[in-house]
Amino acid sequence: MSDILIRGVSKRVHERVQKIAKLQNVSVNQVLIQLITKAIEERKDREEAEKERTEIFERARRLRDKIRKKYGTFDDSTKLIREDRDSR
């Protein structure tokens, strides 16, 4: 295992970490390891979700391109919908 020294921790954060450690009946070191580990896992989850979203958008773009090549483009239906609505 490695050691990490963190400088410049505010008094407020330090006191909060100590309070959490006391409430959980564990050391400050254990609390910090838990917090760092959780933050890293959450970041990894966000990065994986972003990658998945990017892949989905790319598949959708390719599908739109494929449909456009096969069927061409269509006029915007907004005008037709307004005409239909106004005719009632």
Give keywords:
3 helices; mainly alpha; single chain; 88 residues; elongated; 76% helix
Structure description:
It is a single chain. With 88 residues, the chain is mainly alpha-helical. The chain has one domain. 76% of the residues lie in helices and 0% in strands. It is built from 3 helices and no strands. α1 crosses α2 (28-71). The longest helix has 44 residues, at 28-71. It is elongated, with a radius of gyration of 27 Å. The model has no long low-confidence stretch (mean pLDDT 95).
In summary, what is this structure?
This protein has 88 residues and is mainly α. It contains 3 helices and no strands. α1 packs across α2.
List the SSEs and their pairings.
Elements: H1 11-24, H2 28-71, H3 78-86
Helix pairs in contact: 1-2
Global mean pLDDT: 95
Number of strand segments: 0
The major pleated sheet works out as: none
Q: Rough shape?
A: elongated
Strand percent estimate: under 5%
The N- and C-terminal alpha carbons lie at a distance of 75 Å
Radius of gyration: 27 Å
